[in-house]
Fold each of these.
Amino acid sequence: MTRALIPGSFDPPTRGHLEVIDRCSALFSEVLVAVADNSAKNYWFSRAERMRLLGECVSHLSNVKVVQIDGLVASWCADEGVDVIVKGVRSAADFDYELTQATMNRELTGVQTVWLPSAPVFAHVSSTMVKEVARYGGDISSLVTDPVAHAVWQLVSPAEGKE
């Protein structure tokens, strides 16, 4: 049984995130989607809300579980018996950033990292871009699921309840 971890902040979860999770579900026996906080980021959604949204998005995948993670990802993997960290990459810039993390994680605990290139249709999608488009009233329906879009619109324009 191979346990894989997909860590991220998922603020909010995008269709790009979900595509990687779906592919991992087909590749690994168990997939843990770890919602983490990054001290360098300002979040729109609480960790509990991000976990709830992700849980709704992956409920159809029987071998996927959404978990909370604190501290170093590599240490958490070692403590929880996770075999591999999976990272989706959209570009060479993503890969360069992720390679440094993967090297550090392997050095700290021996956990390996596997990269999955994003589907071309999602190569431009990021949580940051979703928030920026929504902030200015743009259509995010192709970038996130309906429940996520609703949650984003509630933050952007709660009085209007725009969907």
Note: The helical segments are 15-27, 47-58, 73-80, 92-109, 127-135, 146-156.
Amino acid sequence: MAAYLDNSATTKPCREAVEAVRAMLEENYGNPSSLHGLGIEAAKTVIKARQSIATALDCEKEEIFFTSGGTEANNLAIFGAAYANKRKGNRIVTTAIEHESVMQSMDELEKEGFEIVRLAPDKQGNISLSELAEAINEKTILVSMMYINNEVGSILPVDKIKKLVARAGAPAIIHTDCVQAFGKTEVKPKKLGADLVTITAHKIHGPKGCGALYVKKGVRILPRTFGGEQEKKLRPGTEASPLIAGFGAAVEALPDLKEQRTAIKELNSYAKSELSKIDGVVFNSGENASPYVINIYVPSFMRSQTVVQELSANYGIYVSNGSACAKGKRSHVLTAMKLSDEIIDKSIRISFSRFSTKAEIDELCAALTDIIKKHPKV
């Protein structure tokens, strides 16, 4: 029996999402921008999905803009906000543990002359509120901070940013990457005080290749692509209507988030209890981290990438050694947390979804025990 515990990388599409995609590919395949009957029917499905997502976020459907995923949404938010606001200042505040799509966007803006302040985390991946407050000044035009870290699950103080921006008298637009939060905990942009919010389908049992950016009404950002009227010209191009339909269906299929979180917390506690029985295992995720993510050090002579491959090839267990977008590179998150080289090089991420089970945890623990016994730390 396979044990899939890499849900922060992607989730298995739910039955509702698969059926919605199939129907759009085989039956309702018109171009949503076409004015004939088939196009109008496709457009209705896109509108329905947009409304489903807006309802989940407690916003208006006109504030939802579809993209090809979280990476594009993050790029659109960051470059769009920076360029729209650059006459008001040049300071941008972010953290050193953001997703690669944010990190690399910031690197590019820094090359263009923007001042990028990257806040460092503590050893559990938490960001200091006092350091955040100190970093935001009257020249800050953008604050971009993820809600939940994708590697260690730390929860960042995104709901405090708006007050700090107001206190500093900054003209800053507030962007929050909620890819690891949406569908797992409450994400309401108005409550968070966010102007821009990134979400994506494949983290909530929807299809890959479809995400969305919430843009608060009245907030101006500049487009990154040109050539069409779709998405109010902010993200032109023929809508990926099958994927959008799947996204909407996945959102509608979400269970009660409080009940789901209770179940995941129970699973997380069970996993920590069982993992702690393995001699030498160290938890990198803090006690207050999201229950959907556990990052651990595996005391073996093998590096984490080899452990991941060993678990997959010989035990049918799927975990990761960090963000899938990093393609196996050394974790910049654990590095920023100033953990030892030994821990950075030999840590894996275990991540859950609502379909994860205790049986999968049992399989993982048995396999790790076996691996450590066969390949002990030298």
Note: The first strand starts at residue 3 and ends at 4.
Amino acid sequence: MKDRSTDMTVGNPVKHILLFSIPALIGNIFQQIYNLTDTIIVGRFVGAEALAAVGATFSITFLFFALCNGISSGGGIIVSQYYGAHDNDNVKRTIVNTGFIMLIVPILFGSIGFVLAPYLLQLLSTPESIIAASTMYVRFMCVGLLFTSLYNFFTAVLRALGDSKTPLYFLIISTIINVIFDVTFVYFFNLGIKGVALATVIAQFISALSCGLYAYTKNPVFRIEKEFFTISSKIVAKIIKLGVPMSLQFGLIAISSMAVQRIVNSYGTVVVAAFAATNRIEQFVHMPYTTLGMSLSTYCGQNFGAKKYDRVYTGYKKGLVMMAILSCVLLLVMQFFGGAITSLFVSEKEVIELGMMGLKLTSLFYFTLGMIYVVRGVLTGTGDAFFALFNGVVEVIGRFTIPIILTSYLGMGPKGIWLSAGIVWAVSGVTAWLRYYFHFHRRYVGSNISFIEPSEQPALFHKKAAAHN
């Protein structure tokens, strides 16, 4: 494999965004396959109680992963800005300093999670019958947190350099390894949940090691000289300033999701099943928005670092157009085929009808959902540390209040759960756009002429000189 870094400060913005998005989207699909593998193998080969034990750990493990991944994402954004400015020395310093942090933070949070696992599960009212198995699974994930964080660190830096293909290759490898070890440990060695957890940790370790070795051998940016292996308080401050709000945003969303789930649980098995099915479907709906936002983050980060602010604005406009087209397609799919899609996950007629109703409601708000991802990509790429936390707080407040208002005070019942999700997206989308307009658009757009590529500038200079003479 060769160095696949891409300089996005020159060339066609749409081409850069699309070429970056496609491998990232495939990677997200494989990530879902990775997650589904454990669910299917545990459910089919171990049993429903074991499946419940693994499922009960999701919010806790997601919280710890999110707290670590925010830091690596923040470091990746800073790398993209320095790379766009062609400041390779600070690119290397940022990689080193982010790496130092990504060694400390996962060990710290992993240790906390390992010790507190049973108490956190009790706090979530986990049934006594599965709490021992759930505790064991959480503790395995806490041990693997370091490997997962290092893998995410390497992929965040590679994406910041415009390379979305290499992370895809290693994600595919990791998924295959995870499936092989899952089947081996669970089906052949009868290790149950312990086998699934062990397979995940091994896959994470191999992915982190192989991705790191690839980055070092194939990408010259990772071959870092001794002089750069120093702590830079300036760069560490930048990483923390951008990464901590992103971590807190992810953490707040995880907590608010737990609050919504409590409301869902109060309506009984049918509503819980329908909500679980639509949640699984909307995980796939989020994927193209996620990859578009990720692409814009890298694209805007590089161009912001190069002070090509009008190219950032161009990326934002093109991103909106792509998002609008995508939203229209997804809206039509859910309006006409929502029931058929829901039936892929459940067979009960009542659950399918409720899930279809939920998808028809939420799909009306897909444009505002897409707006969140587009604006988030642009603003995180430009280093807006405040936005991530602010947007997370807005979403949390909405998730805690709107479902209660609609289901209890307005008497909408289960219908209010899905409608509240759409309203939260709408509120978050509008506030995101307002932040973009007042923070970036009014300050930067029109402040330079960056539609002219460097290769075109000499010719333009000669034309102007000839006209002047």
Note: The radius of gyration is 23 Å.
